[in-house]
Write a structure and sequence with these properties.
The complex is a heterodimer of chains A (269) and B (101). By secondary structure, chain A is α/β, with parallel strands linked by helices. Chain A is built from 7 helices and 15 strands. The chains are: A alpha/beta (269), B alpha+beta (101).
Chain lengths: 269, 101
Amino acid sequence: MTRGAILFAFNSPKFDYYSMAEYAAKRINHFLDLPVTLVTDEKSTMSSTGYKFDKVVKVEPNLDNKRDGVPWINKGRCQAYALSPYDETLLLDVDYVVNSNRLLKTFETGIDFACHDNTAYFMQPKLSQEVLSTYSYKTLWATVIAFRKTDRAKQIFECLEMVQNNYAHYANIHSFISAVYRNDYALTLALRIANGHTYLPGDIIPWNLLHVGKNTTVYKDNTDPLDTEYTILFDNWQRGKIRKEYIKIKDIDFHIMNKENFVELMQNG
Amino acid sequence: MDTKTLLADAKARFSHNSAKQYLKEKYDSKLTVAEQGGLWKADRETITLLDSFESDKLVVMDTFNNPVQVDRKELLAKLKTVYEQTMNDWLKEWTELEGKR
């Protein structure tokens, strides 16, 4: 039984996703003791600093998704099943910061497929869960997906491809904006369809996905690249004034939504 | 700039509520245990339930809402160990955080 992680990284005019993938892979190697396969394109590999991935799969990037006027190459996650060389795979966003071995627990549950359906934001505990639209489903998150090579997992990824190819149609049905393709939304729909429009608790990772969200910045407490202690600083707006608040965290995985902050974090260690 | 200077310059205050929330997120997930073909949470409710029976075998609903027949004593021992370890770590970090602010 082989086990590993797979990352997707395609550089955009704004961000060097290949370097982010190298940063993420080193942490996955260290904290999860897993090999990492990277799915990327020829152009992005120019950013390589020499880190050796377990395997590099070069594909043609799908350039038809744009965010803030620049290409955002996030289509193709549906290929993870076919491209993963492992029996058990963790599919992670490159801006997910691994600081513990917690994700290994997803393999212990004996499931075919698992993702997060609940999120929590550092410093903002009252934020509600995201929904596709007012009358639609609660959003599932494609940031962390664990899957096994089984027929059922294959079906889910095939369904994900089908939703990706017909995204505007599903956006119309579920009343969300289709201009920017989001893997989270496609996954939400694909998993529901694959499960006969039912909710299966076994497909859900039994803890919250932790986000570093708006007005929140993460700082490393020292320059050791594998250190796991951080300071989280939050601009708490109250009656038109900012009150700065902070906490210290350690040994906990999180997802940084602000890419600029993630780049700063990489550069500081 | 080191974070100590940053916090001092920003006149930032330690947020007790957010720290408590972070610790809850961190240690709640550590209470999750995969054992005997089911997924369990080493919490007060499950431990009390297991402890309140005397039979060797017991059918219990796991966190995925699947009924699983378990070796009661074995599962109870495992959950108690995880609970005790996790709560001790939780208290230790909470005490450290309170001291750092």
